[in-house]
Design brief:
There is one protein chain. The chain has 163 residues and is α+β, with helices and mostly antiparallel strands. It has 2 domains: 5-48, no CATH class; 61-162, Lipocalin (Beta Barrel). It contains 2 helices and 10 strands. It has helices spanning 5-23, 40-48, and strands spanning 25-27, 34-36, 61-69, 75-82, 89-95, 103-112, 115-124, 127-139, 144-149, 156-162. It has an 8-stranded antiparallel β-barrel. A two-stranded antiparallel ribbon has the order 1-2. Strand 6 and strand 7 form a beta hairpin.
């Protein structure tokens, strides 16, 4: 049995014409002139979902941000540096001032899943004293941390970003 190119093309077009009822593909006049309609609304819905693939967030970085009482417009600037090392991660923090830090000390960071806990310790008169505990969650694939201060009577929140 020998098939010619014309018979293969005709068989293919006949198959397409039987499928045209369910797919929206229709034939216009000649067998060689086929037309298809595209549902752009469906394509736009499919293109709108663009998942963001992120690596596991890490606390190891230099962080800069603010601490502010909820509903207030006065903020305290905070910088934290956590270099690589053993868990819990240890680094430094400071409240930057115009020419020198207003306060500074040791930072201890721990991460469980997406939750970050930061302890700020100050070295006053040669002895370490914990001054604050911040707890928040990673945001934007680990490039930001947002949360609240745990040991205050006022509702303080903080936002940090890697720099």
């Amino acid at each position: 049995m020998k098939l010619s190119i014309k018979s293969i093309a005709l068989a293919t077009m006949m198959t397409v014409s039987t499928v045209s009822v369910s797919t929206g593909l229709g034939l216009l006049g000649k067998i060689s002139a086929a037309s298809a309609q595209t549902n752009y609304a469906q394509i736009n819905r499919q293109l709108q979902f663009q998942p963001q693939i992120c690596a596991k967030p890490s606390i190891i970085a230099n962080w800069k941000g603010i601490i502010v009482a909820a509903g207030d417009d006065a903020a305290t600037y905070l910088e934290i540096s956590i270099p690589s090392g053993k868990a819990p991660q240890q680094g430094t923090w400071k409240f930057p001032g115009e020419s020198e830090p207003l306060d500074q000390g040791k930072a201890i960071a721990s991460v469980q899943g997406n939750t970050v806990t930061l302890e700020l310790w100050s070295n006053n008169s040669g002895s370490l004293k914990k001054i604050s505990t911040l707890q928040g969650n990673f945001q934007d694939c680990g490039s930001k941390i947002s949360g609240k201060l745990l040991n205050t009577k006022t509702n303080f929140v903080f936002n940090l970003a890697k720099f």
